[in-house]
Each structure stands twice: as C-alpha cells, then as structure tokens.
Amino acid sequence: MTQSMYFRPNGVNEVVAFNASAATATAVSDSCFMVEIVASENCYISIEAAPTATAVNGMYIVKDWPYFVKVTPGEKIAAIKVTSAGNLYVSELTQ
C-alpha cells in the first residue's frame, strides 16, 4: 500500500538571483518541510544549514522545470550558474 502526501503553498516565496558566485536564500520557516524550486537558467543547488553550491557538491537543476525537495526547517538553499546567470524561485509548501 502506498501513501500519498499532498502539499500546498504556505505563502512564503523568494527569488534569488544567482551567477558565477553562489547566492543563498533565507532559511525556510519552522513549518516548512518541502519546497518547490524552479530556476530560470540551469544551475547547481545545495541545501544545508550553511550551503555553498558548486558544480562538485551541487544538485543539477534544469531550467524551467519544477523540483519538489524535502527540507528541514532552518535550512537554506544556495545556487550557482552552470553557464548563464538567472533566478531561483523558492516556494515553501506545507501539508
């Protein structure tokens, strides 16, 4: 038997401009356990308490494709470009 979990927006959204140096979003709120991430350009992201995104340790994100990622309250999301600067759109979700 499988269990489905549904999440909805909690009204907290952030746009983070990234380029050749990593940019970091503010920490997710205490009630957030899932985020939707969309990037305007291909990038690498890292999700930790004090993240630094690089091509070596980052998760590759394809532009214009939504990613749903489990997070822990207080974690931050950092992004760095692959070839072109862009924006990372982070939307907090709640159950």
* The CATH top-level class label: Mainly Beta
Return Rg in Å: 13 Å
What name does the CATH topology carry? Jelly Rolls
- What structural class do helix, strand and pairing data support? mainly beta
Structure description:
The strands form 2 sheets. A 4-stranded antiparallel sheet has the order 1-8-3-6, with no helix packed on it. A 4-stranded antiparallel sheet has the order 2-7-4-5, with no helix packed on it. It is an all-beta fold. The protein is globular. The chain is built from no helices and 8 strands. It has strands at 8-18, 23-24, 34-39, 43-48, 59-61, 67-70, 76-81, 86-94. The chain has a single domain (8-94), classed as Jelly Rolls.
Topology:
Layout: E1 8-18, E2 23-24, E3 34-39, E4 43-48, E5 59-61, E6 67-70, E7 76-81, E8 86-94
Antiparallel strand pairs: 1-8, 2-7, 3-6, 3-8, 4-5, 4-7
Please tag this protein with its features.
Jelly Rolls, 95 residues, four-stranded antiparallel beta sheet, 49% strand, globular, mainly beta, 0% helix
